[in-house]
Automatic annotation (TrEMBL):
It comes from Tribonema minus. This is Kinesin-like protein. GO terms for biological process: microtubule-based movement. Belongs to the TRAFAC class myosin-kinesin ATPase superfamily. Kinesin family. ATP binds at G84, Q85, T86, G87, S88, G89, K90, T91. Keywords: ATP-binding, Hydrolase, Microtubule, Motor protein, Nucleotide-binding. Residues 4-328 form the Kinesin motor domain. The lineage of its organism: Eukaryota, Sar, Stramenopiles, Ochrophyta, PX clade. InterPro entries: Kinesin-like_fam, Kinesin_motor_CS, Kinesin_motor_dom, Kinesin_motor_dom_sf, P-loop_NTPase. Residues 376-392 have a biased composition (Low complexity).
Amino acid sequence: MKGKIRVFARCRPFAGYERERGCQQCVAFLDETTLEVRGSRGPKQFIFDAAFPASVGQEEVFEDMKNLVRSAMDGFNVCVFAYGQTGSGKTFTMSGTPEMPGLTPRTIAEIFLLKEGLAGVADVTISCYFVELYLDNLRDLFYAVDNPRDTKPPKLDIKVDEKKMVYVKGVVTKPAASAEELSALFDAGNRMRKVGGTKMNAESSRSHSIFSVLLEVANRTTQKTSLGKLSLVDLAGSERADKTGAAAERLKEAQSINKSLSALGDVISALSTEEKFIPYRNNKLTQLMQDSLGGNAKTLMFVNISPADYNADETLTSLAYAARVKLITNNASKTQDSAEVARLKAIIKRMQAGEKVDLDSGGGGSDDGPGGETQPPASDNPPAADDGAAGG
């Protein structure tokens, strides 16, 4: 399945500081896909797959992305990410509030609703990992939850497997048997994220976060096993120090954020113009998103904007960035193995982790190695390869 990355634009309501400044509305929604921004050089129109004014609520926004959850359950690599200047509503779109849940909690509920629908037809195993990129370092948020006093966590490496899917070597992966468990894991990890206050946002995300849900579906009838990955990415916002008042540590964070977003912009530019060399390796953020941009994923981008003329320049920059993303074409493909291949891969994974495996009780093979030691089975599907991309 080949197709362009879908892009949704979403405008938040006026913020308190914008009202205090007497700001005027500079964004107009002409129809369900078109918006116009009045900047210093006159009005400019943008057309996306959907354009949501501030009056559109969380439930309606989720309805337009719900089918992607089913795609992940079907074995596709799916990525949903939010982009925009600091304070533009990205975290509200992705996480929301207890009263107005965002895309992530609604996605979690939908995953288990789909799992219930497969009861009796397939066995569904759900697990997840949660990382953030802070000051160019990759942090395992689940490890931080389990080891809050450990100042030297294990090193993480960003890898790419033989199916061109990104994974994080060394990351803590946790299983979830219910929507409540998965929600609790997300909330616990989210509380470990780096946040801080600026003049434009009382609780500004100071990192990029990636919450990835792994969905393994073993169909009892076809004996096929699919593995889908659904990544929900909350990017930190681009900043201008003169507006945010960033200084000292906040300024250092802002510089790191802007550097990674600039690298992401370079990748988007290269992909949209179909250049031969794509600079994924220039930043850990672009390495993490390698399979979501120009990869094998079904990807949806939310570009979040402010309605105020005070932020018109940043709004225009964000929308121009999103317009480039819309030009990128991805090759979405299912990840699916036969039951036997899936079993052999599981054995290899356990052996790589140092476990002893009894192949006879595992459903095949014989213990014919020297001294009774288990030998790895022959397979046309070798263990995951990586491209050597270094992580945090």
